[in-house]
Structure prediction request, 72 residues.
Amino acid sequence: MIIPTAKNIKTITDLREKAVELLEATRKSGPTFIFHHSKPKAVMLSIEEYSNMMKMLEDYFDSLKGKELEEN
Prediction:
């Protein structure tokens, strides 16, 4: 699990003022947590991380379906 730290937390203002910079940092360093009024509101991922996560989820659900079919 990725934990929010000072390095990967940004604010809505940071996002508005430095969007391209944040995108590049996210690509290099991993997920970025976006906070608004000191509360977490979103997580920004690189497209590569997002694609990998979606593939893992698909594989997981396929394995669950496979186990279900084996049991029947």
